[in-house]
Write a structure and sequence with these properties.
Order of helices and strands of chain B: EEEEEEEEEEE
Structural class of chain A: mainly beta
Number of helices of chain A: 0
Number of helices of chain B: 0
Order of helices and strands of chain A: EEEEEEEEEEE
Largest sheet of chain B: 6 strands, mixed
Helix content of chain A: under 10%
Distance between the termini of chain A: 36 Å
Shape of chain B: globular
Strand content of chain B: over 45%
Distance between the termini of chain B: 41 Å
Strand content of chain A: over 45%
Shape of chain A: globular
Oligomer: heterodimer
Radius of gyration of chain B: 14 Å
Radius of gyration of chain A: 13 Å
Helix content of chain B: under 10%
Chain lengths: ~110, ~110
């Protein structure tokens, strides 16, 4: 079955540590996205990538980094510079054409203490 | 810039009652609008989308939405609520600039009581 996988489902880290969240898709989609979800704030775009080896900052990129070395993969690193990293992180992909919807993964809940 | 506003962070209905979730948009160009549903601790699933082909859009699970330009609205409805409809619903609009980026509303949690 085609889809988007995110691992792990739950992640716990100590403050000051970097952590990498995995996102893999087998939909052959060109574009991939990372969102952060906090209660009452909807989804906010962190980074997006239109094509391999290219990515752009979204609305809240500070304290995060990404890479896009393969079409199928778009890992997100939450660095120690992110002031409030505890959140639910969602990865999405789309074929890259304007009218197509985005397909979402199941999410990773990150807790930093 | 494009934006959407969802009125009501929580909506409660009884099973079998009409579901109405409100979404108003702001856009300087004809908008492309989406409704997504999120079940607890899961990702988002597309319910339906408006891409200017028809003002009444039918989606999955019996949901539909009507685009009303005069009211800048795209409200989501379902004639008869089911317990399984309990979830959070997000309205989104395609940004006018950039590459297929969506702007999401803050979400409405639908509670269904027996």
């Amino acid at each position: 079955d085609g889809g988007i996988t995110q691992s792990p489902k739950y992640l716990f880290r100590k403050e000051g540590q970097n952590v990498t969240l995995s996102c893999e898709q087998n939909l052959n989609h060109d574009a991939m996205y990372w969102y952060r979800q906090d209660p009452g704030q909807g989804l906010r775009l962190i980074y997006y990538s239109q094509i391999v080896n290219d990515f752009q900052k979204g609305d809240i990129a500070e304290g995060y980094s990404v890479s896009r070395e393969k079409k199928e993969s778009f890992p997100l690193t939450v660095t120690s510079a992110q002031k409030n990293p505890t959140a639910f992180y969602l990865c999405a992909s789309s074929p890259g054409r304007t009218l197509y919807e985005q397909y979402f993964g199941p999410g990773t809940r990150l807790t930093v203490t | 810039a494009q934006s959407v506003t969802q009125l009501g962070s929580h909506v409660s209905v009884s099973e079998g009652a009409l579901v109405l979730l409100r979404c108003n948009y702001s856009s300087s160009v004809p908008p492309y609008l989406f409704w997504y549903v999120q079940y607890p601790n899961q990702g988002l699933q597309l319910l339906l989308k408006y891409t200017s082909a028809a003002t009444l859009v039918k989606g999955i699970n019996g949901f539909e939405a009507e685009f009303k330009k005069s009211e800048t609205s795209f409200h989501l409805t379902k004639p008869s609520a089911h317990m399984s409809d309990a979830a959070e619903y997000f309205c989104a609009v395609l940004r006018e600039t950039g590459f297929q980026k969506l702007v999401f509303g803050t979400g409405t949690r639908l509670l269904v009581s027996p």
